[in-house]
Amino acid sequence: MKPFWFLLCANVRKEYIELKRYYPNTLSLIFTFYIVFLAMLLGIHVIGDPQQVDTNVQYVIVNYIIWFFMLATLQNLGYVILMEAQRGTLEQLFMSPAGMWRILLARLIAGLFLYGIIVVFLLILSMLTANQWLFFRVDVVMPIFIITTIGMIGVGFMLAGLAIIVKQIQSFLQILQFILMGLTFIPLSTAPFLLIAPFVKGVDMIRQVMIHGFIWSDFLLFDYLSLMINSISYFFIGLIIYFKCEKTALERGLLSQY
User: Fold this and answer.
1) What is the mean pLDDT of residues 103-118?
2) What is the mean pLDDT of residues 97-123?
């Protein structure tokens, strides 16, 4: 556990240095997503139902914040493999005694932490802009969010496995933003079959807490079970797919190729 803690601290420091050193890119990322939010807000006020404006704005704030967080985190892990391959350091990482999967896990957790700080800033800025204040029960939201991120980690490992073999996955990562938008914005009440999709149940529960003020007792046992089963399942499926891709890459000698 102690070696992984050192690995995690090193990757948090690395990710922070890159965000700070290339601050124009970081600022443009935040600015771009803020403009997207303003466009959504304008659309609600122009073509939305005036009687449902407040609810719709709150709905958009929650979905847009979660969408940004998932997109930034998952895309970052895909680009990690891509950038390491371009720099010629991917093979060196695989030679690390820590194991490549632990390095990727540490980078993913570091991304979750640092982008989480940006998300909190964007959330406050969005609520100030829209003059709509959400319920933020930390004691309810954080456990649901943490369980949801377990499934996100699994999806991240799937992307990492794909990147190890294919290398050039920029087009897929661009398509990913629309897939994540659909999974985030479409409510389970409209499409119940999305219950089997990754992190949709967690997003729906977070939405219920932040918009409608739900507490622990407002959810059913089925809600908790489906959330945990979904997240744990995608975590292990992601690891299995990643290890399979890693084994294939090693057998075919793909690590040194770009």
Assistant:
1) 87
2) 86
Q: Where are the beta strands (DSSP E) in 19-95?
A: none
Q: State how far Cα 153 lies from the chain centre.
A: 8
Question: What DSSP state is assigned to residue 148?
Answer: H
| Spatial CA neighbour of 180 closest among 46, 43, 75 | 75
Q: Could you tell me the pTM of the whole model?
A: 0.86
Q: Which pLDDT score, from 0 to 100, does residue 221 have?
A: 93
Distance of alpha carbon 222 from alpha carbon 146, whole angstroms = 18
Which amino acid appears at position 49 of this protein? D
Q: What is the pLDDT of residues 115-167, one digit of tens each?
A: 888 888 888 888 888 887 888 788 888 899 899 999 988 988 888 888 888 87
Look up residue 110 and give its two tokens: 């570091």
Check residue 163 and give its pLDDT. 83
Q: What gap in Å lies between CA 72 and CA 153, rounded to an integer?
A: 13
For 81-105, give the DSSP string: HHHHHHHT-HHHHHT-TT-HHHHHH
Using CB atoms within 10 A of its CB, is residue 89 exposed (0-12), middle (13-18) or buried (19+)?
exposed
- For residue 181 the two structure tokens come to 């938008």
Phi and psi, residue 154, nearest 5° = -60, -45
Q: CA-to-CA distance for 62 and 57, rounded, in angstroms? A: 9
pLDDT given for residue 107 in this prediction: 87
Nearest-angstrom CA–CA distance, 184 and 113? 20
Provide long-range contacts, Cβ within 8 A and 24+ apart, for 253-257. 254/164, 254/165, 254/167, 255/90, 255/91, 255/94, 255/164, 256/90, 256/91, 257/167
Phi, psi angle pair for 219, to nearest 5° = -95, 150
Closest CA to 37 of 63, 75, 55, 19: 63
The token duo for 180 is 């994540």
